[in-house]
Specification:
Layout: E1 3-7, E2 10-11, E3 14-15, H1 19-26, E4 32-38, E5 49-53, H2 57-60, H3 63-77, E6 82-86, H4 89-102, E7 105-110, E8 112-114, E9 117-122, E10 127-131, E11 139-143, E12 159-163, E13 192-196, H5 206-216, E14 219-222, H6 224-228, E15 249-253, H7 259-265, E16 270-274, E17 288-290, H8 294-305
Parallel strand pairs: 1-4, 1-6, 4-5, 5-12, 6-11, 7-11, 13-14, 13-15, 15-16, 16-17
Antiparallel strand pairs: 2-3, 8-9, 9-10
């Protein structure tokens, strides 16, 4: 039986959003999708099997525990084609350890798939490299958050089973969760993003684009130059060094379209670009383009939309 094994990240009883990228990638891979998670009541739709391990959440996060867990899984089902982890502190702790311990091939920070090639960025995000494994499976992957989340998964409810594991001695002890600062908004969940770039010119122009976003019922986001100047918070940044987004509409104003930015938004369903430079790279990816000063377009839209 061919299958792919996803190691789910569960924290404080929550099935993390980043897990859905692994499931989205599995929809592109051959074989069934199995999800491995700690003892919980979590339901995951669109997969063939959930394997619930009789371990506390904190123990499940340890690579030493998951080596024992995986040994039991492969006894029941044989080796999977792929072992998938989120590209997170959990994934980058466990995935390399598992690959080294079992001698499996390893690829981290997978961001896309094209014609059978697995793609990941290199050289400070300035290039993408495609990989095909020559060694026999299993292969270990970490999957970038936001890269495959929107892909359709299989219908139906999975089979669920319990897996009892005896960890004789835990050589790691869990201390506490340390939460990152809560962002004011999660732009990766927005259906409509109004994104502004270097062309905005100054901090004083930002409020007018906040008003425009409200009237368009959009979420305001930005490219890195705006974030680096601290005109908007880091949580609003689109791009490889920010968030990867897949909105229904991505309205880019004053964004030239660097490689790093394009990789973060190129999979939007509809891309509209406004830039006064007709040679701006973003026009190569836009479905609709306007060669005009972004502020003039803003003013026209505000006039058309009225007080909203």
């Amino acid at each position: 039986m061919s299958y792919n094994l996803c190691f789910a990240e569960v924290r404080r009883g929550k099935f993390e959003e980043k897990n859905f990228d692994m499931l989205g990638l599995c929809s592109l891979l051959e074989g069934q999708t199995f999800v491995l998670l700690p003892k919980s009541e979590i339901e995951v739709k669109g997969v063939e099997r959930i394997i619930e391990v009789d371990l506390r959440e904190e123990s499940f996060l340890s690579p030493l525990s998951l080596v024992v867990v995986f040994e039991e899984v492969r006894k029941r089902y044989g080796d999977p084609e792929f072992l998938l982890f989120p590209h997170s502190s959990f994934g980058m702790d466990v995935a390399p350890y598992m690959a080294g311990y079992f001698g499996f091939s390893f690829l981290s920070d997978l961001s896309s798939e094209r014609e059978g090639l697995l793609l990941k960025p290199f050289f400070s995000e300035k290039a993408l490299a495609g990989f095909q494994f020559e060694a026999p499976p299993p292969y270990v992957l970490t999957v970038r958050s936001g890269s495959f989340k929107g892909l359709a998964r299989k219908e139906g409810m999975p089979e669920r089973e319990q897996l009892r594991i005896a960890i004789l001695e835990e050589k790691r002890s869990f201390v506490e969760y340390v939460s990152e600062e809560t962002p004011d908004v999660d732009i990766s969940k927005a259906d409509f993003l109004l994104s502004i770039g270097r062309g905005v010119g100054s901090r004083e122009e930002i409020p007018s684009y906040e008003i425009l976003a409200q009237r368009l019922k959009a979420t305001l986001s930005a490219s890195r130059p705006v974030i680096d100047k601290m005109w908007l918070p880091k949580s609003r940044q689109v791009g490889i060094s920010g968030r990867t987004v897949r909105p229904k509409v991505y309205f880019a104003m004053g964004i030239s379209g660097s490689f790093q930015h394009i990789q973060g938004m190129k999979d939007a369903e509809c891309i509209i670009a406004v830039n006064r430079d007709p040679n701006a790279p973003i026009f190569q990816y836009a479905h609709f383009g306007v060669v005009e000063d972004m502020h003039r377009v803003r003013d026209m839209l505000l006039e058309l939309l009225g007080k909203g």
